């Protein structure tokens, strides 16, 4: 289950420089204008805009700036080659507020040669005084179970979104009002209502300058109609009708379900990149790979439980995620999918757990900490028969006889148009 949250209005964002506004170059700097020193197995390059003209879209809230920088080109597995170990760290309702966790985890990602997926809540791009522009399905105009924002908060969030994308991270959506449960929750929405909610989420991103009165700010450096290819539903509800809508709208993946640590497959034309169950230290049952679920099973609905247990609870999350990683890394190599929120529940212990997990796993050999987009690109580039064989491996099961014999068959030629695969020469 995904928790609701209210973004803190009045978050102070750094002013975008005139140079950045003119060229989008240098938007990957820290808020103090400095470049961050990176450490990881491969030192990442500072985020820079592609060297081509910027084509503004609509009111200039977004722009086409070319191919996204710092993406790894997906390649097909060679016969007998062991798959890389993918790990996806993702964030629901991503926005920059007074806690500055968005900017913090951008830095964590850079220092550990990782990219992540940030699921933006559309209402974080809409000022409080314009809330009635949001027309949520089955609710009155301006209604939302999470907060709207103000001009300063929107500017701060835009700064993080801009830099995150230029660093190779993905910007997805967590939709808008975060309605859960009965009486109009997302689990009761029709396919048409999901399409309307998605259209509004896009609109708030594509018109934030107009809505917030920030005409002189630099645009987001991507076309959101093309950037948006996947999502996670609020509270993991409404998945069935959302997937129908998403499939019809050209999305490529969904991560709203619950699954074991096995290789993903397609459902309704979308990659099913569900959250997963991993060991829960000190318990006889497994736990979902999300901070909210660890919290609920530790302090119940109290977001700030017994301070004496905060360290233990954070250690349990970290150790559970690392145990799930190790089980896959030594076993079937199924991608590990992790979901989080920019929240300081139980004294921020889950944020510490996530950061320590990133540091523990992303630098290991053959590990790729990537966004959902990059994982979907890699899956699309593989021979379907290879993926089918990988799906025969159970949780933590390594192939008998080793990877060389297990994937010894020569893969079929890749179809034309697969992301990252060269077109066949005629």
From TrEMBL:
Chain intervals with Low complexity compositional bias: 409-426
Keywords in alphabetical order: Signal
Highest taxon in the source lineage: Bacteria
Chain spans, region Disordered: 30-50, 402-426
Signal peptide stretch: 1-21
UniProt keyword DNA-binding, yes or no: no
Compositionally biased spans, kind Basic and acidic residues: 33-45
Keyword Ribonucleoprotein belongs to the record: no
Coiled-coil regions listed in the entry: none
Matches recorded under SUPFAM superfamilies: Glycoside hydrolase/deacetylase (SSF88713)
Name by which UniProt lists this protein: Lipoprotein
Organism: Streptomyces incanus
């Amino acid at each position: 289950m995904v928790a609701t949250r209210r973004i803190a209005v009045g978050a102070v964002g750094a002013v975008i420089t005139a140079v950045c506004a003119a060229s989008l170059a240098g938007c990957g700097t820290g808020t103090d204008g400095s470049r961050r020193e990176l450490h990881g197995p491969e030192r990442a390059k500072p985020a820079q805009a592609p060297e081509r003209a910027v084509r503004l879209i609509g009111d200039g809230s977004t722009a086409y700036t070319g191919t996204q920088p710092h993406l790894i080109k997906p390649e097909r597995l060679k016969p007998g080659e062991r798959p890389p170990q993918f790990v996806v760290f993702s964030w629901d309702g991503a926005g920059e507020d007074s806690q500055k966790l968005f900017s913090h985890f951008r830095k964590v990602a850079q220092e550990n040669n990782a990219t992540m997926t940030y699921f933006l809540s559309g209402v974080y791009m809409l000022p409080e005084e314009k809330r009635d522009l949001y027309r949520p399905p089955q609710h009155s105009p301006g209604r939302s179970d999470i907060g709207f924002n103000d001009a300063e908060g929107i500017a701060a969030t835009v700064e993080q979104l801009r830099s995150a994308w230029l660093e190779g991270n993905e910007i997805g959506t967590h939709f808008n009002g975060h309605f859960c449960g009965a009486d109009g929750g997302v689990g009761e929405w029709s396919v048409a209502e999901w399409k309307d909610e998605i259209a509004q989420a896009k609109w708030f991103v594509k018109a934030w300058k107009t809505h917030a009165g920030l005409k002189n700010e630099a645009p987001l450096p991507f076309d959101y109609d093309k950037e948006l290819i996947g999502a996670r539903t609020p509270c993991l509800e409404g998945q069935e009708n959302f997937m129908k809508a998403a499939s019809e709208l050209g999305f490529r993946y969904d991560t709203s379900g619950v699954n074991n640590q096995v290789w993903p497959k397609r459902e309704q034309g979308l990659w099913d990149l569900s959250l997963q169950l991993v060991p829960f230290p000190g318990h006889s049952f497994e736990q979902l790979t999300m901070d909210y679920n660890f919290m609920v099973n530790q302090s119940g609905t109290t977001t700030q439980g017994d301070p004496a247990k905060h360290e233990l609870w954070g250690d349990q999350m970290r150790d559970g995620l690392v145990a799930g990683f190790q089980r896959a890394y030594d076993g079937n190599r199924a991608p590990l999918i992790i979901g989080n929120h920019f929240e300081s529940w139980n004294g921020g212990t889950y944020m510490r757990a996530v950061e320590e997990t990133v540091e523990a796993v992303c630098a290991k050999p053959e590990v790729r900490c990537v966004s959902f987009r990059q994982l979907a690109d890699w899956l699309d580039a593989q021979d379907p028969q290879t993926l089918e064989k990988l799906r025969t491996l159970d949780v933590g099961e390594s192939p008998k006889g080793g990877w060389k014999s297990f994937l010894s068959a020569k893969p079929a030629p890749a179809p034309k148009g697969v992301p990252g695969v060269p077109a066949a020469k005629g």
